[in-house]
Amino acid sequence: MDSTQEVEARRHLLVPARFAIPVLVVGTVWLVLHGFGVVDPDGAVTSLFAAFTAVVATVYGLRRWRPRPLWPWLVLGGALVLFLPTNFLRVSMDTLGNLGPDRALLPDAFAVPGYFLLAVGLVGLAGVRLRNADDIDAILDGVIAALAVLMLAWVFLVTPILAEQEVSLPVQITFALYPVLSTFVLAMGARVAFSRGREAPIALWLLLVAMFCLLLGDTLYAMADTGRYSFPNNLMDLPYAAAFLVYALAAMHPSIQRLGQSRPSDDVEARNGRLFTVAAALFLPIVVLLIGIDRIGTGDRVALGVIATLLVGVAVFRMWRALRQHAQSQARLAYEATHDGLTGLPNRGFVAEHVSRGLHTQSLRRGTMTLLHVDIDRFKLVNDSMGHSVGDALLVAVAERLNERVRPGDLVGRLGGDEFVIVIAGLPDEAAALDFGERTRLMFKQPFVVRGVDITVTASVGIAFQFAEQCVAEELIRDADTAVNQAKARGGDDVVIFDTSMRELVAERLHLERELRTALEKGELTLHFQPKLRLADRKVVGLEALLRWEHPELGMVRPDKFITIAEDTGMIVEIGAWVIDQACAELARLRSTFRGANHLCVSVNVSARQLRSETLMDTIAQSLLRHRVPPDVLCLELTESILMENLEVVSSQLDAIRDCGTRISIDDFGTGYSSLAYLSKLSVDELKIDRSFVKDLGEDASAASLIQAVVFIASSLGITTVAEGVETTQQAEKIAELGCTEVQGFLFAKPLPSDELDTKLVELGMSPANHLRAVPDVARSTSAGAIGHSA
Question: Which of 263, 284, 333, 743 is the one with CA 20 to 30 A from 470?
Fold first, then answer.
C-alpha cells in the first residue's frame, strides 16, 4: 500500500472519530454531572436528550457506513423513536411508585412496543432464520432466560405488592413485562455475540453494554415502583441515559458494517455460553422455591437442594451431549462442504476463502501471494483407456505427491476434475515462483504407481504472482487459470507465469465470443473452397470447405482464433450444421454449373463436440435431402486426436455415418498419435497427410519414408491418400513418385469464395455446362430458333 492509500485509510477511520469523540466526551460529562445532581436533577431532560442523540447517531451511522442488511438497524431506530418521550412522560405524569388504579399507562404504551422492536432488531442482527433449527433453539434459550427472570420478578416483586395493595391486571402485566423484555433483549444481544465467536466487532460489545444498562435501569424502576425502595431521580435515569449514549457510539462505529454479515460461529464458545445461560435459568426457579418455602427444616431444605441440583445437572449434561453431537455433525458437514470427497483436499470454495485471508494477512505484512494452477495433460485419455476408477486413483496419487512436495504452511487444493491448486505465501519474487512451478512440473516425470501399474502423465502449470496489496482473491485465481490455459495452448507440459498481456488476450477472447454468438445471424460467416486434384490426370475431384469470419470492424478473423472459441462454448454444433448445409448447397450448384461435376466431393471439417452431438446424423440427412445430392459426395474430415479421445464411441458413430453413405477422412494424419493400427478398425475412406511432412520433402529423408509408409499401408486397406500443403512443382512430383493419390495446396489453388471459385475451376480444366432456356411464344413467331443457349 503506497503512502496515498495509507493516508486515505487513516482519513476513512478518522472521519467518524470527529463525531464520536465529542459525543462521548459531552455525554460522559453530562452523565457524571447528572449523577451528582448538578445537571437536570429531576431527570426530565437527560434521558430525552440521550435518546435523541442515539437517534441522530443512528441516522449518521446508517448513511455513513451503509450496513447490510439495513432493516435491523431501521427497526432499532424505530425503537429509539418510541423511547424518546417515555421518560419525559413518566416524570410529567408521576407514574413512579404509583401502582394504583389512577396510574397512567401512556408511558408504557410507548416503551413496551419499543422493547419488542428492540428484540426484533437484535434478532435480525443475529442473522436468525426461523427455518434454521439452531436459530430457533437460540430464541428458545432467550425465552427460557426471560421466563426465569419473570418467575424471580413475580416472587420477589409482584407477589409482595399484591399482598399489600390492590393492583389492576393491566398494571400487573405491565409491571412484570419490563424485566422480562429487557432480559430477552439482552439474551438476543448475547446471541449476536455468540454467533460472532472471538471476532465480535467493537460495535457489538457496545450494543451489549447498552442492553445491560437498559436491564439495570428496568430493575431499578421495578424496585422503585414497589414503593419499598427509594432512589433519587438522577440515579434512576442514569442507566437509561448511559444505554442511549453507548448505543449512539455503537451506531457511529465503522464495525457496524460487519455486524449483519454471516460468519461461521465459534461453536465451542457459542454453545458453552448458551448452555451456561440455560443452566442458570433452570436452576434459578429451584433456588427461589427453596428460599420461599417456610415450613421445612434446614435438613430437608439441603436434601431438596441436592436433589434439585442433581436433576438440573443431569439435564444440563444431557443438553451438553446433544449440543456436542450437533456440533460434531455440523463440523462433519462443514468439512464435507469445504473439502473434495475423492482426494480429501480443500475444494474451490475453501481455497478462495484461504486466499482471501492470506491476502489480508500478507497485505498487513507487505508480503506476496503465489497461486499455482496445476492441470494434468490429456487426463481424459487415462479415463477412457483405463477406466474411471483408475483415473480416480491417479488423482488421489497426484494429490498425495503434491502434498508431500510442498512446504509446511502451503495449501494444496483441488478445483475439480484434473485441476489442482497450490497457494504459497512469502515467495520473494517471480523468479522464485517460476522455479517453484518448474519443480512442480518436474515432479510428474516420475511415474505414478496406480494399482500396480506405472502411469506417466505430464502437467501444465499456470502461476499468478502478486504483491498482496495489489490484488484480490478472485483476480489471483482467475489469473492463474488464464496462465494454465496458455500453458496448455502451447502443447502442455509447460510452466507459464501470468502477465497483463494475457488478461488482454482473455478480454479479446471474451469480445470475440460475444461477437461470434451473432455472427451467423448477421451473415458474417462464409465458406471458402480449396480444390483437390487427382495426381494421375490433374483433374479436380473435390473441394474442402473452409469456414471464414469477416467481421465488419475486426476484418477477417483467423480461424485458429474463433474455431476454438466455437468448440469451447458449444456454438460449433450450430455453426457446423450451417457449414454442412452450405457445403451441400455449393456442391449442388457446381453439379449443375459444370459438365461432369457429379464426381465432385466436398469435405467438411467436424469437431469432437459435433461428433458427440445427437443431431449430427439428422443434420447430414436433412442437408443431403434439401439440396438433392447423394451421400457419397459429402466427406467428413476428423483429426486423429478426435478419434483417439474415445475410440469406442467414435467408432460406432463413424460406422453409422458410413452406413448412410457419407465418406470419412482423417485430417492432419501423422501429427497426432499416429497409430496405424486403428485404421483397420475404423471405416475410413481417406487419409490427408499433414503439410509439415510435405514441406520437409527434399530436406528430410525421413519425411519421404514416412509418406511412403503411409501410402503403402493406406493402399493395402483401400484408403485414398491426399497430400496437403503442396506449394511447389518439385513437391508435387515427389508426392507422385511416392504413390500418393491426390493433392491439395497453393500450387493449384488457394481457398476461394464461391463467386471466385468458378473461374478457378475453369482454369483447372473443368468445363461449364450449357443451360437450356425456354423462349417465350412471342419471340417464337419472330425468331428463327425456338431455343437459345446460355453459358
Answer: 263
